[in-house]
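Researcher: Please generate the 3D structure of the following complex. Treat every line as part of one assembly.
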Amino acid sequence: MGVSGPPGVLVEDPRTPFHAPLSRPEPGSAGRTGTWRDSRPVIDESKCTRCLLCWLYCPEDTILRREDDMVYVDYEYCKGCGICANVCPVGAITMVPERG
Amino acid sequence: MPVRLKDLPRKRYGMPGNAACPGCPETMGLRYVKMALGDDVVLVIPAGCSSVIQGIAPKSGINFPILNIVFAAGAAAAAGMKAAFEALGRGDVKVVVWAGDGGTGDIGFQALSGAAERNDDILYICVDNEAYMNTGIQRSSLTPPGAWTTTTWTGKREPKKNVPLIMIAHDVPYVATASVGYPQDFIEKLRTAAKIRGFKYIHLHAPCPIGWRFDPGLTPKIAQLAVQTGLWPLYEYNQGKFRVSPFSRMYRRPEKRVPVIEYLKLQGRFRAALKNPELVKMIEAEVERMWRWIDALEKSLNPAEEARRITGT
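Model: Done. Output below.
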């Protein structure tokens, strides 16, 4: 019955009379993008004023927000673009070159 | 109502690990759309970078239900989808078109104009990165004068097509310009648009590090400079009323504006233009032209407020 897409993407939805190839939102659709990075953002928590600008501007949503609004970085997926270091008004984020 | 950062949803709305380039303004913009409009949103995406950011099945790199459609049919597909949702009794679902500048101003323009004329209840967002970035940086009608692309080697000679003004001329309920450099302004405009029934159009200025030739860390800075030099004024046309947005208001006075050269010299695409004083003059004239339009619209659309401004009461 129905049309099948690439392996593993059949949709079993009882309301649709056919099988359609559908992708679902999931992290890591392009792999572990942290490996693209040539320098990593490091947050100096003593300087951070919790203004949340880095969290707002991060294109990847890899700057995460704790309950108390302190931020930390998801290095698994951070692409190292450096936007957070540039928007930080107090210079609490520095880009440190990756080694190896 | 102004948007406060602490009040924005804490939920992780972006989809990390997608195929976008580092410093991509589109993934930034998509996050703000989700923050502003919530979960009951369906995106219609004509061909463009956003089609690529989704990546390869079975995973998708954008955190929305998406219909991918051909270049020429973004607004038409969205209008049909909205009609289908209404027929199913789900009129509360917002249908949003997320199209690039090529899918808006060039190839998708007839569908956009048609949907605006029918006043279909959709929100159309044009993510303007000022060239066909996805296919290799070819010139579009929204590329600014002086900019290098692979099809304008010595800098484009024609002015940028002013799509938001064309949409105001369609007499749709809501038209606004926004910038990824001012997310609070963009989120506020999205929320305003979501409350209005009928055709809504938001033009989002999105600096592309790859095509504009600048450091990926400078995306918000370049976007802010475009507003501060007066090249990209933020304004809003809401059901007959025209208003310059707060972030742009101080730059209506030419002496307050940052010199255009500051914006140009950060971008590699203007390297040829900077050596040619004629082209720089043309870009400066573009700023004046833009603000003349805004003054004219403001005066003719808000006669009462204009009278108050002149008499100083």
